[in-house]
## 1
Amino acid sequence: MLNIVIFGAPGSGKGTQSDFIVEKYGLTHLSTGDLLRAEIKAQSAIGKKAQVLIDAGNLVPDSLIIELLEKKILETPDSPGFIFDGFPRTVAQAEVLDSFLKEHQTKVSIMLNLHVDEQTLIDRLLNRGKTSGRADDNLETIQKRLNVYKTKTLPVLDYYRSSDRATTVDNNSTVEACFEHIVQAIQTVK
Ligand code: AMP
């Protein structure tokens, strides 16, 4: 199994690169942001709880995210592997993911850390906000999300670095150049 964590700040291109990876390697794409937005659309109990937090740029509680994600993984038992996008966002989530995958005799093969300069992130998110319809793609919430990323999510990078699974890929230029580097990185663990 090939399991990839795609990591990076909001607006770093995780969704776009995930689509390319899925196309090339046939993995199952699990985006916790997309899963939450589907719950919000369905107006489920989880969705209602998550909406207030997401709109304010805060994280959703670990327990809720983990429940949602584990359910999805178990729904696709024949998958050749998963790409985790927007997850883990806390060290606690990373630890739970490791033990969950271990229980299923598999592991995170590689963590791809997409690096983008902060001003470029803000410009890209503001630009996305013009068409995304996402209430959290406005300047105030973007700044809040970037703060949450630095304080709560960035330690996840050290977590994977300490077990030698993290690879940083620059995504300041084109999507194609970034994907080329991603493919090279994936070849090292395939
Ligand atoms: P994203 O689409 O990945 O940018 O996620 C949008 C929002 O959903 C985030 O700003 C968080 O509020 C929430 N969210 C997504 N994934 C997670 C996660 N793994 N842990 C906590 N909150 C999350």
## 2
Amino acid sequence: MFELPILPYSYDALEPYIDAKTMEIHYTKHHQTYINKLNDTLEKATALQGLSVQSLLSDLSQIPEEYVESVKNNGGGHYNHTMYWNSMSPNPKSLESPALISDITHTFGDLENLKEEINKAALQRFGSGWAWLSLFNGKLFVESTLNQDSPISLGHKPILGVDVWEHAYYLKYQNRRDEYLTAWWNVIDWSYVERLYLDSAIVIA
Ligand code: MN
């Protein structure tokens, strides 16, 4: 059964960018609920037990029809949030990998353009969802998904994702999603993004 992964910092560690109350509720309530519901589903779907979330989401066609919705939403919720927590840090490292720097420069012009593209995708996401930097066929691109849908269900490999559900920012930023995005970039730990970019076998959750 799945468990809430360890948060690698305290609830207030990302202040003032991400406030302690949001962190606490987001992690202990929202993320925990995805895990509880995923576990409830797996209790019934015995054939799926023992698989990583990543492998469950990678091929939703293998999931019995009655469980697909729950695995997609709650498995996606677990996977996406695990990546989200780990991509942030109170001591964020800057982008250093020559391979990733060169790929970003080649694809987006520069890091600032990449950030703008992700912000645009995040702002255009109507309702709840995520914006991502992903890889497909070895190529970097920006995409957005609805609800807890994960890029890995589309055969993509996300290496950075921003949660734009209102629960991720409403307490501090209310309707100002753009301000949350600007703040979020301050706590992005590029060493984690680089690890995902360089290691194709890494299992997030
Ligand atoms: Mn969330």
